[in-house]
Amino acid sequence: MTRVLLLGGVGDALRLARRLGPEHLYSLAGLGKVPEDLSCRVRVGGFGGAEGLADFIRTEGFDLLLDVTHPYAAQISANAAAAARLAGVPCWALRRPGWQPQPGDDWREVADWAALVSALAPFRKPLFTLGREPLAHLDEIPVHQHWTLRLLDAQPEHPRARCIAARGPFALEDERTLFANEGFDVLISKNSGGNATEAKLQVARERGLPVLILQRPPLPEVERSFADPDTLWQALQPLLRDSR
Q1: Are 208 and 124 in a shared domain?
Q2: How far apart are CA 66 and CA 76, in angstroms?
Q3: Alpha carbon 65 to its chain's center
Q4: Which end of the chain has the least Cβ crowding within 10 Å, N or C?
Q5: In this structure, is residue 27 part of a structural domain?
Q6: Does any domain span residue 190?
Q7: What is the pTM of this model?
Q8: In a structure prediction context, what are the per-residue pLDDT tens digits for the chain, which is 244 residues long?
């Protein structure tokens, strides 16, 4: 029986998890409501690094590790690849291609938070779509700026920032309305790829807004990598059929 340990969030990984049976495990490392419509088992929380994950794989008897975490979850992906080697099981990964700039885009790539802050200096009303990282820097907001942060979970009110709790996918017309109502003058984004949150880039293009793009981190080599979840699922089918 081929038993799968699926590491992921609530996007592509959840699509895969909904197709897995009770002999498999879906592990959520991040925040968010645990889905209740799954046949597979669900686990929330970390493993204690690569060695802890390897011990868990061996103890629970998993045969395949699937890394379907976010493209910027570099530490989790590194731990997954190392744990698979330690446990002697293959690691497959979703390596979703990043977005590519289109005609009319004004993308400015930044390497880290320090570079982002420097590039952000001329602007007044940025929209951050980086997840939780900006929360650690709310006390550093320059006097001429007011930040808007879009993230999964609600946050306390802040005099210099607005936090929008929202989960994609985001419709194009909704994004147009948000940008028009709030008057953003710059968008800050990860290059996540996929279509769930891509509409914001089209709106920035339409409005002639610069986009500060956080560089993707390097990810480890694995036994097999896939550009989309459907291709990964098709490759998984023979293993799952053999386990029945």
Answers
A1: yes
A2: 12
A3: 18
A4: C
A5: yes
A6: yes
A7: 0.87
A8: 789 999 987 688 988 999 999 999 999 876 556 777 899 999 988 899 999 999 999 999 999 999 999 999 999 999 999 999 999 999 999 999 999 999 999 999 999 999 999 999 999 999 999 999 999 999 999 999 999 999 988 899 999 999 999 988 999 999 999 999 999 999 999 999 988 899 999 999 999 999 999 999 999 999 999 999 999 999 999 998 755 4
